[in-house]
């Protein structure tokens, strides 16, 4: 049983708007062109006050596209006044010099920029962004670097754009960003559609994915990371302790609260901040239930794997997104791919 004093929400992901200027086919929040049921500025400030009470240190402002909120700087500055730092996840199409400067003045010191292709054409296929928008993103990276704002790239990897992964590393190194994080395709939001899964899910290219991850890990030109969508990655094939509802939670634009971004399914909705106070939602067992999920109940290949004690079946949210079963083995396990490859040699 977990004690409440062991839990503190160090970083919170906040979908401050579900509106976006792009309509990426794989969007986990299914963001749209128009906002829906967003919280007001005053509602957001009350939530920020409540976050400070339970010990939130960092808000990761996301969306949708957070730059579409006219009050974003006001909210960042308000959060800073109660001791909460900020960073922003953005597609950067709207991040010109004026906006980057105002965000910096409000207290934002880091941006994570989403870019899913090293060329305008690859990025267009993945994110439906135009060539002009691609070059705006590149310019936004350069603007932020000139302002000494930390820049982190985030790039979704599916089987359709896997071959572009090495070029993304070159682009990140060339633009001198702080790091690049590759995001494993997970069928959440719009990404649940069958046509998107057929395009992006690694049903046939797991060997190629393993080779890319191994090469990227060995590349010394820039810091490279892989998120939970990949499961345990080489060379250690270990997996971090689940922090869902323990060190983090995720807040939707309409006030819905989830334990983390990997659990954005109605089954894991803990409550709504228009209906229940944040402290009560945070203190509920439903918030941290996934972090104490009984891993010995996982069935399939994971149950008999010699690496299970090291990876513990990987992210249960990602496994659920792929299979609909919290007890299912992780379906895109690179450790099993490596074992098969070694057996053939």
Strand order of the largest sheet: 7-6-5-4-3-2-1-8-9-10
How far is the N terminus from the C terminus? 45 Å
Q: What's the average pLDDT? A: 95
Instruction: Show unreliable segments.
Output: none
Radius of gyration: 20 Å
Question: SSE string, helix = H, strand = E?
Answer: EHEHEHEHHEHEHHEEEEHHHHH
The portion of residues forming beta strands comes to: 5-15%
* Percent helix: 25-40%
What is the 3D shape?
A: globular
- Protein structure class: alpha/beta
Report the biggest beta sheet as strand number plus sense, adding barrel if it closes: 10 strands, mixed
The count of helical stretches stands at 13
Structural key phrases:
345 residues, 13 helices, 35% helix, ten-stranded mixed β-sheet, alpha/beta
Would you give an account of this structure?
By secondary structure, the chain is of the alpha/beta class. The protein is built from 13 helices and ten strands. Strands 7-6-5-4-3-2-1-8-9-10 form a ten-stranded mixed β-sheet. The mean pLDDT is 95.
Strand-helix topology:
Blueprint: E1 11-15, H1 41-54, E2 58-62, H2 72-81, E3 85-90, H3 97-106, E4 110-114, H4 120-127, H5 131-146, E5 150-157, H6 165-174, E6 179-184, H7 194-200, H8 206-218, E7 224-226, E8 248-251, E9 256-258, E10 271-272, H9 278-283, H10 285-288, H11 308-311, H12 316-323, H13 334-344
Parallel strand pairs: 1-2, 1-8, 2-3, 3-4, 4-5, 5-6, 6-7
Antiparallel strand pairs: 8-9, 9-10
Helix pairs in contact: 2-3, 4-5, 8-13
